[in-house]
Amino acid sequence: MPRLPPMLLAVLVTSAAPLASQNFDSVTITRQRLADGVYLLQGAGGNIGVSTGTDGVFIIDDDYAPLTPKVKAAVAGVSISPIRFVINTHWHRDHTGGNANLGGEGVIIVAQENVRTRMSKEQFVKAFDAKVPAAPAVGWPVITFGESMAFYLNGDTVEVLHARAAHTDGDAIIHFRKANVIHTGDTFFNGFYPFIDVSAGGTLDGMIAAADTALSRSNDETRIIPGHGPLANRSQLKAYRDMLATVRIRVARAKIQGMTAEQFLNANLLTDLDSIWGKGFMTPAQFAAVAYTAVPRP
């Protein structure tokens, strides 16, 4: 598999060494209003969803640990209430890095049960040949769910759904039913190829199924928060889903023909997609290598 750049490892899993080399002083947290009481925050890591209202504040993901003061300041710009809950969309540290800071302040951390399991133990990310240490215990989820749960807060019903074996084995999709906003976590990278953490249970089939779940709950007015990339709409998610389905067909066909991973890469079977989707975190070759491992051999 082509070597992945150190910055990609830092963005997705944030072990101590790459985190120390990053400069967060210059990072600005931007804020975008999506609906009454619902906002999108964007900083250095995964996109953050915010819900405010009479029941207080809850957020979806919390970026890197050093950015917690800036995240809290951005939230304070729309609500004087403290953060009550944080929902993690999965275990990677660009989405959960702030957990320990917030958990230490009494914020209740919620996630799919596999997220707590992975955060509580050292992980090995095969794509990077990297060990990721266990997170501090104060940052582990204290409430977990299996397949779904709901919050009835701030005048909305917020459904949290497990996306099985997608980006990881613990992904969550969050649907604000009244506000018509969906947060997909890293099951959706808007505008570019995604990373699929196969060593943490991710699969290409699961990514496609997660996109189908979000699409089934959306309409042309839905505001869709991807794990990374700009705010999206239904048509952009549909284009992404169709790209993944095309990749899945080509990888499966190559494996049926007996192609090895190296032969698949050398065949350049995704070239027509690369010009559209290959300008993000991962180069076309890196994504092709991950995609090959993310599709089971027929």
Secondary structure layout:
Blueprint: H1 6-12, H2 16-20, E1 30-35, E2 38-42, E3 48-51, E4 57-60, H3 68-76, E5 83-87, H4 93-96, H5 99-103, E6 108-112, H6 113-119, E7 123-125, E8 130-132, E9 143-145, E10 148-153, E11 156-163, E12 171-176, E13 181-183, H7 204-216, E14 223-225, H8 234-256, H9 261-267, H10 271-277, H11 284-293
Parallel strand pairs: 4-5, 5-6, 6-9, 13-14
Antiparallel strand pairs: 1-2, 2-3, 3-4, 7-8, 10-11, 11-12, 12-13
Helix pairs in contact: 7-8, 9-11
Features:
7-stranded mixed beta sheet; 11 helices; Metallo-beta-lactamase, Chain A; 5-stranded mixed beta sheet; alpha/beta; disordered N terminus; globular; 298 residues
Short description:
With 298 residues, the protein is of the alpha/beta class. The chain has one domain (6-234): Ribonuclease Z/Hydroxyacylglutathione hydrolase-like (Metallo-beta-lactamase, Chain A, 4-Layer Sandwich).
What does this structure look like?
With 298 residues, the chain is of the alpha/beta class. The chain has one domain: Metallo-beta-lactamase, Chain A (4-Layer Sandwich). It has eleven helices and 14 strands. The protein has helices at 6-12, 16-20, 68-76, 93-96, 99-103, 113-119, 204-216, 234-256, 261-267, 271-277, 284-293; strands at residues 30-35, 38-42, 48-51, 57-60, 83-87, 108-112, 123-125, 130-132, 143-145, 148-153, 156-163, 171-176, 181-183, 223-225. The protein has a seven-stranded mixed sheet. The chain has a five-stranded mixed sheet with strand order 10-11-12-13-14. Strand 4, helix 3 and strand 5 (83-87) form a beta-alpha-beta unit. Residues 1-9 and 11-20 have low confidence and may be disordered.
